[in-house]
């Protein structure tokens, strides 16, 4: 790449980053227009699907020479999480490029506007080199991943349009890696968002009595904390990776009787609740966790109830953990490894993604999906202040994708259907 090319590649990335697609009011239309205009410069077929009004999904198609072969889907989400503007060194939607370090600061620089545009830039380079794909390559830019993906990737994966695309492999997001090895993911933990509620007799703030809502809730919180520590200890001791234990973090506490001048101090409230973000590995036993919740964390005997705000299934409809194979049964895995190597990149060991991504909707349909965001030598800053990606790392990622897309789109063995299922 000569300097002029890389300058325009970087400024296109900045342009995308400057479109504020943060929740709760993402400017999806502006982003969809930007992506469509990019697709036009590449002569890709482009359509905007609106499974839910106001939530556009941009679907691009680079037609392959053999449409009978299963296609390749390169997925990325358009939306980003909100940012606390005043806590950033550079405003989160300015995409400031620091001239001395080469870091580009922006919300979405790692998660995951980088990946979406790297796919496009890789296609641009492949086209310039005269490459023509054997398999059809699709690029999807989807809304709402950060709020659960139900109006985005989930509807898309369950649509007839998707069915007719005859997808054989999906690439989706991974995580930055502080080392020189890229991280790569074959599965992810399932989000369970739990609210537990305690009730108890109200009374004078000076009175000691049993069964207050606060006491009942506190006992649960203590029990949750013991479990949390037991899981965290396994990670700290190096016995399990982050994605292999069940995480539970308290994310809100709600209790007390408020008045216009603040909380009432001498009244013990009759209700109290707490919310927990729980992530369940595909290898965990969801039944025993649910029993723990019902018996220890929210026992009816202690006047407690619970409710899930989100409860993704650990198993698919065949009762198997929702993971993609990374052995010889999944030819896409070896192809990815080789392609990354060919582009002088190194891959770490296959991992379970600790949070959730849209990949689960494709895996649920029995498709292999690989989580991969080519960012090596980069601190993990997704959802953090001062999220950044170095411009050279971004450019290097384009070369990596160029190699992967070339290998995938040239692969002429029809992938066997059962190859997409993992035996775990
Ligand atoms: C319940 S779906 C939420 C998806 C979100 N994804 C990335 O951060 C997450 O919290 O993992
Ligand atoms: Zn993401
Ligand atoms: Zn995210």
From TrEMBL:
Zn(2+) 2 binds at residues 111, 146, 383. PROSITE patterns: ARGE_DAPE_CPG2_1, ARGE_DAPE_CPG2_2. Residues 188-300 form the Peptidase M20 dimerisation domain. Keywords: Cytoplasm, Hydrolase, Metal-binding, Signal, Zinc. It is found in: Cytoplasm. Gene3D superfamilies: 1.10.150.900, 3.30.70.360, Zn peptidases (3.40.630.10). Binds 2 Zn(2+) ions per subunit. Its cofactor is Zn(2+). The keyword Zinc applies. It is an enzyme of class 3 (hydrolase). One of its GO terms (molecular function) is metal ion binding. The active site is at residues 79, 145. One of its GO terms (biological process) is amino acid metabolic process. InterPro entries: Aminoacylase-1_M20A (IPR052083), ArgE/DapE_CS (IPR001261), N-acyl_aa_amidohydrolase (IPR010159), Peptidase_M20 (IPR002933), Peptidase_M20_dimer (IPR011650). CDD domains: M20_AcylaseI_like. Belongs to the peptidase M20A family. This is N-acyl-aliphatic-L-amino acid amidohydrolase.
